[in-house]
Write a structure and sequence with these properties.
153 residues, mainly alpha, elongated, disordered N terminus
């Protein structure tokens, strides 16, 4: 019988659950900013946010399925994500540049979460999880680069 998703038993699943929670919260923030961005950069930011949240949406399933493959339940509630995530909710009233700054900070936070999870997976000799996390790390580093390049000085 699988264990309760709120408290994963294995260190790898706990770290994957944190990655899932941070990824989900950053996905939600990016999607919300896609809807609410305004200003002279609207078209380019709207399109960039859409590309990023679409990529993140697919990754959420991959992360959750890895947790399941390891025999644990994936967290799925807002409360569970809130307890596991270090990324705060977005604010639709922010300016486009402030949205970019918040998303950049979110990606930096998620990159740190991924690096920690990667270390735990490497220590556990869990190569499939290492592979998954390495791909996610590259994706978020690229998203951060694109967002940072779009920031006004």
């Amino acid at each position: 019988m699988p264990k309760a998703a709120e408290t994963p038993d294995t260190p790898v699943c706990l770290e994957l659950s944190k990655v899932l929670a941070d990824s989900y919260n950053l996905y939600l923030k990016t999607h919300g900013y896609h809807w609410n961005v305004r200003g002279p950069q609207f078209n380019s930011l709207h399109a960039m946010f859409m590309a990023q949240y679409t990529e993140m949406w697919t990754a959420l399933d991959e992360i959750a399925e890895r947790i399941r493959a390891l025999g644990e339940l994936a967290p799925m509630s807002g409360a569970a994500f809130g307890n596991l995530s270090s990324i705060k909710e977005g604010d639709a009233t922010k300016s486009a540049n402030d949205m970019l700054k918040e998303l950049a900070e979110g990606h930096k936070t998620l990159i740190a979460t991924l690096k920690n999870a990667l270390k735990v997976a490497e220590d556990a000799s869990d190569d499939p999880t290492v592979d998954l996390l390495t791909v996610r790390l590259g994706s978020h580093e690229k998203h951060l680069w694109m967002i940072s390049a779009s920031l006004e000085d």
